[in-house]
Amino acid sequence: MLAETSAKLTDNLQQATQILAQSSQICILTGAGISAESGIPTFRDKQTGLWEQYRAEDLASAEAFERDPELVWSWYQWRRQLVHDKAPNSAHLALARWQQAGSHKITLVTQNVDDLHEQAKHHERTSRHEPSNDSKPLGNLNNIDSTVHHLHGHLWRNRCSQCHKPYTEQSAQPKSDIDFDTKLIHCSECDGLIRPDIVWFGESLPVDSWQIAEQAAANCEVFISIGTSSLVYPAAGLAQLAKQNGAKIIEINPNPTANSFVDITLAAKAGEVMPLLVDRIL
Ligand code: OAD
């Protein structure tokens, strides 16, 4: 496969491998691009991006939900239907293999609300016949691994928009049994409307995940940004924070960002680059 990659990419892969061989603390930030090869649309792609087809402010804000809860709820139900049968691709799997190998201290931070990193880790563990720390079966709505730090929430979780109580009625169900009904649901506690547990525009990031992400970025030796346009803050600021603290920055993206502080750009799809990189590291 290496023979098929361009000379520039091969050269940059070599440099990235060398830097990683001399480092132990790694912070990885993933965005929608890592799930693109699993068939999940990104947000800002010119043809297929979700935000090219819909206005973010109509669908991903508390104001939008207040204005038109049916519209927002049905859009998230549609996204759940779109994502429910998607599987991790070779980028998620390579990353899980790297984490499992224990060669580096890796903090994995994601802006994605899907659970493909969790699925990949589960796949990696079961393929090695190792016991899982996670007692919940794969495909379950609560299939969340505490070592994947989600900055923008979880597509498969819901909570009350008023009292914030988690709505867990469907949590024990496998995704294949979920009813993607667009009918609104009310909280059993306060009768408020149930909403997806996603961080919408204008809302704060979950404190725990953000603290872990900030610390990992500030203390890492190498920061790897995979499949993100780096346009949405505060997540986009993590790479800068890492750089200010002396880390090397590696970016994996077929359409590299304009960020001038990136040290090594691997300009190819994550599903192609990650297995090559991980094969070389391990
Ligand atoms: P974007 O849609 O902004 O960016 C996706 C990036 O992935 C782009 O830079 C693409 O070039 C790149 N890409 C596409 N295919 C790829 C592949 N196969 N391998 C690697 N990279 C690929 O998505 P995010 O940066 O994740 O927030 O967007 C950040 C946030 O904006 C999202 O979390 C979401 C959105 O509004 C919320 O919903 C709160």
Share of helical residues: 25-40%
Helix tally equals 11
Q: Ligands in the structure?
A: 2'-O-acetyl adenosine-5-diphosphoribose
Instruction: From the alpha carbons, calculate the radius of gyration and give it in angstroms.
Output: 19 Å
CATH structural class of the largest domain: Alpha Beta
CATH H level, superfamily name of the largest domain: TPP-binding domain
Overall 3D form: globular
Report the major sheet.
Answer: 6 strands, parallel
Separation of termini? 17 Å
Q: Give the ordered list of helices and strands.
A: HEHHHHHHEHEEEEHEHEEH
Any idea how many domains? 2
User: Averaging pLDDT over every residue, what do you get?
Assistant: 91
**What do we call the CATH topology of the largest domain?**
Rossmann fold
Beta strand %: 15-25%
CATH architecture assignment of the largest domain:
3-Layer(aba) Sandwich
Q: Count every beta strand, where a strand is a DSSP E run of 2 or more residues.
A: 9
Uncertain runs: 134-143
Estimated structural class: alpha/beta
Give your account of this protein's structure:
With 282 residues, the protein is of the alpha/beta class. It folds into 2 domains: 2-39 and 88-148 and 205-281, Rossmann fold (3-Layer(aba) Sandwich), CATH 3.40.50; 49-85 and 154-198, SIR2/SIRT2 'Small Domain' (2-Layer Sandwich). It has helices spanning 7-21, 33-36, 50-53, 56-59, 62-67, 69-83, 90-101, 116-127, 207-219, 237-244, 270-281, and strands at 25-30, 105-110, 148-150, 153-160, 166-167, 194-198, 222-226, 248-252, 264-266. The strands form 2 sheets. It has a 6-stranded parallel β-sheet, sandwiched between helices. Strand 2, helix 8 (116-127) and strand 3 (148-150) form a beta-alpha-beta unit. Helix 1 packs across helix 11, helix 7 packs parallel to helix 11 (270-281) and helix 9 runs parallel beside helix 10. The two termini are 17 Å apart. Mean pLDDT is 91; it is low at 134-143. 2'-O-acetyl adenosine-5-diphosphoribose (OAD) binds next to helix 2 and helix 11.
